[in-house]
């Protein structure tokens, strides 16, 4: 017995504009209390050396173990700005959620609460703490936190982003 000849279904045309990592959301879809985590990262001497090269920060506290010990540090201290960089929204899924409505990163602030050393594992997170409509736009405020592997809060800060509203 022969099977009837059928034509395979044509797949829909691929559209890169509809290829999203997560479903797109708007300012109005966001909620205070939502948390956007970044993957944990264990810092190495190579990370510190790369940041030192990029930043041109040559203070010995960042690379000279003996200097650091003589000045009360158990080991060289990871650059504070390098630690802050782990709060970049792009390290989380947040910009994937708001990519179509994102206008700009408005401001940031932070406090460095504890030293970070090579070998520490960092756990960054952004938590929405405020949603302020402003005409056709809205300001999203997030707390930015980083804990280490011992559960210590090593950085606490705030970011603000401007998004388009519906």
TrEMBL record:
Residues 32-142 form the MaoC-like domain. Gene3D superfamilies: Hotdog Thioesterase. Coiled coil: none annotated. InterPro entries: HotDog_dom_sf, MaoC-like_dom, MCH/BMMD. Belongs to the enoyl-CoA hydratase/isomerase family. This is MaoC family dehydratase.
């Amino acid at each position: 017995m022969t099977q009837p000849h059928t034509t395979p279904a044509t797949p829909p045309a691929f559209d890169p504009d509809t290829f999203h990592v997560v479903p797109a959301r708007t300012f109005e879809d966001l909620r205070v209390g939502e948390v956007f985590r970044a993957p944990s990262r264990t810092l190495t001497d190579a990370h510190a050396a790369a940041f030192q090269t990029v930043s041109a920060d040559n203070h010995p506290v960042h690379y000279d173990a003996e200097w650091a010990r003589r000045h009360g540090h158990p080991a060289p201290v990871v650059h504070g700005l390098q630690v802050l960089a782990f709060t970049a929204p792009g390290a989380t899924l947040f910009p994937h959620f708001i990519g179509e409505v994102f206008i700009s990163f408005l401001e940031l602030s932070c406090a460095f609460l504890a030293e970070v050393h090579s070998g520490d594992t960092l756990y960054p997170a952004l938590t929405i703490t405020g949603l302020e409509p402003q005409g056709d736009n809205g300001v999203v405020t997030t707390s930015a936190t980083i804990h280490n592997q011992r559960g210590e809060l090593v950085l606490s800060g705030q970011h603000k982003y401007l998004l388009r509203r519906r």
